[in-house]
Amino acid sequence: MSTIKALYTLTKQMNDRFEKADEIDREELINEFNQFVEKRGQLIDQLDGEYSDEERELAQELLTLDEALRQKADQYMNSFQQDIGKFKKQQAGNKKYINPYQNLRGNDGGFIDTRN
Protein backbone atom coordinates (compact mmCIF):
# COMPACT_ATOMS: atom_id res chain seq x y z
CA MET A 1 0.00 0.00 0.00
CA SER A 2 1.35 3.39 -0.92
CA THR A 3 2.04 5.95 1.78
CA ILE A 4 -0.62 8.31 0.46
CA LYS A 5 -3.24 5.55 0.48
CA ALA A 6 -2.30 4.62 4.06
CA LEU A 7 -2.46 8.29 5.08
CA TYR A 8 -5.85 8.69 3.41
CA THR A 9 -7.22 5.56 5.13
CA LEU A 10 -5.96 6.70 8.52
CA THR A 11 -7.43 10.19 8.08
CA LYS A 12 -10.76 8.75 6.92
CA GLN A 13 -10.95 6.51 10.00
CA MET A 14 -10.25 9.45 12.34
CA ASN A 15 -12.81 11.57 10.52
CA ASP A 16 -15.41 8.83 11.01
CA ARG A 17 -14.55 8.65 14.72
CA PHE A 18 -15.17 12.39 15.11
CA GLU A 19 -18.54 12.03 13.39
CA LYS A 20 -19.51 9.55 16.12
CA ALA A 21 -17.94 11.67 18.88
CA ASP A 22 -21.16 11.84 20.90
CA GLU A 23 -21.15 8.06 21.33
CA ILE A 24 -17.50 7.82 22.38
CA ASP A 25 -15.90 8.62 25.73
CA ARG A 26 -13.97 11.90 25.54
CA GLU A 27 -10.78 10.53 27.03
CA GLU A 28 -10.82 7.62 24.60
CA LEU A 29 -11.33 9.92 21.61
CA ILE A 30 -8.54 12.25 22.71
CA ASN A 31 -6.16 9.29 23.14
CA GLU A 32 -7.11 8.00 19.67
CA PHE A 33 -6.52 11.45 18.21
CA ASN A 34 -3.06 11.64 19.81
CA GLN A 35 -2.19 8.23 18.35
CA PHE A 36 -3.53 9.40 14.98
CA VAL A 37 -1.28 12.45 15.06
CA GLU A 38 1.77 10.30 15.83
CA LYS A 39 1.02 7.78 13.06
CA ARG A 40 0.25 10.60 10.65
CA GLY A 41 3.58 12.26 11.41
CA GLN A 42 5.41 9.01 10.71
CA LEU A 43 3.59 8.56 7.40
CA ILE A 44 4.26 12.15 6.35
CA ASP A 45 7.96 11.61 7.02
CA GLN A 46 7.88 8.61 4.66
CA LEU A 47 6.45 10.60 1.73
CA ASP A 48 8.72 10.94 -1.27
CA GLY A 49 8.29 13.18 -4.29
CA GLU A 50 7.19 10.86 -7.10
CA TYR A 51 3.49 9.99 -7.46
CA SER A 52 1.20 8.58 -10.11
CA ASP A 53 -1.90 10.43 -11.33
CA GLU A 54 -4.10 8.25 -9.13
CA GLU A 55 -2.01 9.10 -6.07
CA ARG A 56 -2.22 12.83 -6.89
CA GLU A 57 -6.01 12.65 -7.05
CA LEU A 58 -6.04 10.76 -3.75
CA ALA A 59 -3.77 13.43 -2.28
CA GLN A 60 -6.26 16.14 -3.30
CA GLU A 61 -9.08 14.21 -1.62
CA LEU A 62 -6.82 13.77 1.39
CA LEU A 63 -6.33 17.53 1.67
CA THR A 64 -10.08 18.22 1.67
CA LEU A 65 -10.66 15.39 4.15
CA ASP A 66 -7.87 16.72 6.36
CA GLU A 67 -9.44 20.19 6.38
CA ALA A 68 -12.82 18.71 7.37
CA LEU A 69 -11.14 16.71 10.13
CA ARG A 70 -9.34 19.81 11.38
CA GLN A 71 -12.63 21.71 11.61
CA LYS A 72 -14.31 18.85 13.48
CA ALA A 73 -11.40 18.57 15.90
CA ASP A 74 -11.44 22.33 16.54
CA GLN A 75 -15.19 22.28 17.11
CA TYR A 76 -14.85 19.32 19.48
CA MET A 77 -12.09 21.01 21.48
CA ASN A 78 -14.09 24.25 21.67
CA SER A 79 -17.09 22.39 23.08
CA PHE A 80 -14.76 20.64 25.52
CA GLN A 81 -13.38 24.00 26.71
CA GLN A 82 -16.92 25.36 27.09
CA ASP A 83 -17.84 22.37 29.24
CA ILE A 84 -14.79 22.98 31.43
CA GLY A 85 -15.83 26.64 31.80
CA LYS A 86 -19.35 25.63 32.80
CA PHE A 87 -17.97 23.16 35.31
CA LYS A 88 -15.73 25.80 36.93
CA LYS A 89 -18.61 28.24 37.09
CA GLN A 90 -20.81 25.59 38.70
CA GLN A 91 -18.10 24.82 41.27
CA ALA A 92 -17.82 28.49 42.19
CA GLY A 93 -21.60 28.70 42.52
CA ASN A 94 -21.64 25.66 44.79
CA LYS A 95 -18.97 27.18 47.04
CA LYS A 96 -20.95 30.42 47.33
CA TYR A 97 -24.07 28.46 48.18
CA ILE A 98 -22.32 26.53 50.95
CA ASN A 99 -20.65 29.59 52.51
CA PRO A 100 -22.18 32.84 51.24
CA TYR A 101 -20.22 35.01 53.70
CA GLN A 102 -16.79 33.68 52.78
CA ASN A 103 -15.64 36.75 50.88
CA LEU A 104 -17.01 39.34 53.28
CA ARG A 105 -14.21 41.05 55.14
CA GLY A 106 -14.16 44.32 56.90
CA ASN A 107 -14.59 46.11 60.17
CA ASP A 108 -18.20 47.12 59.70
CA GLY A 109 -20.24 46.59 62.83
CA GLY A 110 -17.29 46.45 65.23
CA PHE A 111 -16.62 48.87 68.01
CA ILE A 112 -13.99 49.52 70.64
CA ASP A 113 -15.03 49.74 74.30
CA THR A 114 -13.18 52.64 75.91
CA ARG A 115 -14.65 52.32 79.39
CA ASN A 116 -12.30 51.52 82.21
Features:
rod-shaped; mainly alpha; 116 residues
Describe the structure in your own words.
The chain has 116 residues and is an all-alpha fold. Helix content is 72%, strand content 0%. It has three helices and no strands. Helix 1 packs antiparallel against helix 2 and helix 1 packs parallel to helix 3. The longest helix is centred in the middle third of the chain and has 46 residues. It is rod-shaped.
> Cα distance, first to last residue?
98 Å
The gyration radius over C-alpha positions equals: 27 Å
How many H/I helices? 3
Q: How does the major sheet shape up?
A: none
Instruction: Quote the beta fraction.
Output: under 5%
**Poorly predicted parts:** none
Helix/sheet category: mainly alpha
Question: Order of helices and strands, N to C?
Answer: HHH
What coarse outline follows from CA principal-axis ratios?
rod-shaped
Please give the oligomerization state of what you see. Answer: single chain
Could you give the count of β-strands? Answer: 0
Question: Residue-averaged pLDDT, rounded?
Answer: 85
- Helix residue percentage: over 70%
Brief sketch in words of this structure:
With 116 residues, this protein is mainly α.
Topology overview:
Elements: H1 3-19, H2 26-46, H3 53-98
